[in-house]
């Protein structure tokens, strides 16, 4: 069930790849002229930027050292080029709006309005909510197992997949954290961290899907399933970070693992008598509908809310359904084991 959640992510990464590269806004002659003038003067219209008074190593080109931005403001990593691109984009989109034109993409992205230096505020907010919901789901799962269900004589829960869901929760929270960071400011480091966290989560959830759907409880068998997949995912993450951030390859890897999970959970829900199997179907159907938000790409409303942000929003109720199933599964398996022991 938790693995199915990442199918949405793999599709989102797939559609993200198609948007990378040259965009209509990049080729706009007025936008290009604005960029050239800004990079020379450091100003767009009447607005000038401190970044443009410093070289790439942070030394002032003209003016005293105290004109530098404070360290506490440098976290956002905006430099002269990025500020010029943003404000030229804003100026050009305002001209386009007055002429009755529609928004266009710049450098593969829709024109968003910054909010407190945050690049995509809606996506950041929804990612933060998903992070909080994952934490809530994890805590309620922990409390249920350790304080409401009976425990084994060695004080361990009866549910055989407890440790796996704990790892899943940590990886899920890690992903949503870096998703929020990347949408706050998208540059090479945050992008790599976001993609690495996503691949790690998809890879582990694939392992979890196989172990739970096929009811693999023997430790040796679990190791035989997990070891090659962990080695593959680790190698892929290292490749993305230290050799080449290959969007196309990453899309294929995520799609294969995502579709495999979708099929496994779908077949499992069809043949099992699990009382909560309807939640698996609800999740899979809801997830498929959410993917349509990535297909139906539209400009951000008021410069804030776009299709990708709504995809992030769709993950909020789906995360609740996911953890609801996990708690039901823990209760079902615990009661089943207790009945066998009587």
Automatic annotation (TrEMBL):
Membrane-topology annotation of the record: Multi-pass membrane protein
Primary location: Golgi
Compartmental location: Golgi apparatus membrane
Pfam families named among the record's database cross-references: Per1 (PF04080)
Gene Ontology biological process terms in this record: GPI anchor biosynthetic process
Keyword annotations: Golgi apparatus, GPI-anchor biosynthesis, Membrane, Signal, Transmembrane, Transmembrane helix
Protein name in the entry: Post-GPI attachment to proteins factor 3
Function: Involved in the lipid remodeling steps of GPI-anchor maturation.
GO cellular component, as recorded: endoplasmic reticulum membrane; Golgi membrane
GO molecular function: hydrolase activity, acting on ester bonds
Domain of life, per lineage: Eukaryota
InterPro entries: Per1-like
Family: Belongs to the PGAP3 family.
Signal peptide: 1-27
Transmembrane portions of the chain: 122-146, 158-181, 193-211, 223-243, 249-268, 280-296, 308-326
